What does this fold into?
Amino acid sequence: MTRLLFTIAVILALTIPALADDAPALLERWYSGLATADRTVFDDLLADDARVILEDIDTVQTKDEFLASLDEWKNAVRGATVRHRIGHSQNGMVTVFVCYQFPNNTTYTREIFSFRDAKIIESAQSAIGEACEGF
It folds into this structure.
């Protein structure tokens, strides 16, 4: 039993740093894809069973629903600037603070990502405010 627990601990110790190494690159691709509504990027980044949670409008989208929404997003993001900053990483989740500056308004959000096998399995977004002061 002790040997099994040790083996599990070693596997976890090797997996968590790998996630920490992959997360910044995956998130950079995510936000670059958001700026252009690039369906190919999201199809590659999201696991087949991924969920995208938009807490402010109480909506949960599957991967396919999220991909289908990109046509509408492409219109919304035209002329916008998307800036992000990784806040912290803990227990396989990464928190990102994002400033969406649209032509007519600004939104500051907190987005929490979960990963599995170098894919995003969940993204949960909630608004923090309407200004990105000090971002």
Q: What stands out?
A: Strands lie at 46-54, 59-62, 81-90, 93-101, 106-116, 119-129.
